[in-house]
Amino acid sequence: MRLRLRLLVLCLMIILFVVYNMASYQRRQTVLDEDAPPFDTIMGSDRAAVKVSGTGRANAKVSHRAASTARVGFLPHGIVEPYSDMELKPLWLTRSVQSQQESNQNDRCLIAIPAGINQKKSVDALMKKFLAENFTAILFHYDGKVNEWNDLPWSKSVIHIAASNQTKWWFAKRFLHPAVVSMYKYIFLWDEDLEVDNFNPRRYLNIVKSERLEISQPGLDPKLSEIHHPITVRKKTGNFHRKSQSG
Q: Which UniProt keywords apply (predicted)?
């Protein structure tokens, strides 16, 4: 009888101990949840100057001061990152693919083009030029038509973003954010109707680098292109110019 009583008392003590610890844990967890910030990202500090290029019908490089390291409450490490890129990733990342991607990170450039299906031929010529030089490419489909580009061999290797009846700058402001494009050394933001028969992207970049140009664009042939600003007219002498004939 006494043994049963002792066992009963022991069981009650164990149950009370477990209940007490569970209640204490729940109370501490409730306090932590109340003090924790929400799951949205809290941005802080400044990032190093980011080089961004691309304006008008050309490429450019613009220094930009942007927000930096993300601090997120109670989210596992790696879910939220302060920086990203526009590189397509394979579903299964092998060591060989990873090493190849890392080797291509050094001098990466990006070209973004607003693309309508009516200019498919000229965009095709542009893509062949730039993809051959290891550019990352984005097409902004302002007419909403994406599937019509699937017959081109390079279509699956570029990024397609569609929004009907939007301008080039509408796309650029939303999808060329510094936090996404900071890894690219140069960014080309071109119109879709530029002729590139006599254009070499790598040679053009060599001139930009050697002259340390911050914002630039290729000179336009007045016989082949519509000229909106005199400074964009190509001069026959020299590799580049900073002023038009009118000043």
A: Signal
The CA distance from 81 to 67, in Å, is 12
Instruction: Please determine, for residue 157, whether its predicted confidence score (pLDDT) is greater than 70.
Output: yes
Structure tokens at 57: 């019908």
Q: How far is C-alpha 132 from the geometric centre of its chain's CA atoms?
A: 20
Buried b / exposed e over 108-129, threshold 16 CB at 10 Å, is bbbbbbbbbeebbebbbebbeb
Query: What is the topology classification, in CATH, of domain 46-64+107-217?
Result: Rossmann fold (3.40.50)
pLDDT in tens, 122-146: 899 989 989 988 889 999 999 999 9
Do 117 and 148 meet the contact criterion of CB atoms below 8 Å apart? yes
Interacting residues of 130 by C-beta distance below 8 A, sequence separation 6+: 111, 137, 188, 201
Q: Where are the domains of the chain?
A: 46-64+107-217
Mean pLDDT of 220-230: 65
pLDDT the model gives residue 47:
41
The alpha carbon of residue 178 and the mean position of all alpha carbons in its chain are separated, in whole angstroms, by 7
Q: Are strands 186-189 and 109-114 parallel, antiparallel or unpaired?
A: parallel
Cα–Cα distance for residue pair 154/137, rounded to 1 Å: 10
CA pair distance 119, 112, nearest whole angstrom: 15
Spell out the residues 6+ positions from residue 156 whose beta carbon is closer than 8 angstroms to its own.
150
Please check whether residue 146 is in contact with residue 162, taking contact to mean a CB–CB distance below 8 angstroms.
yes
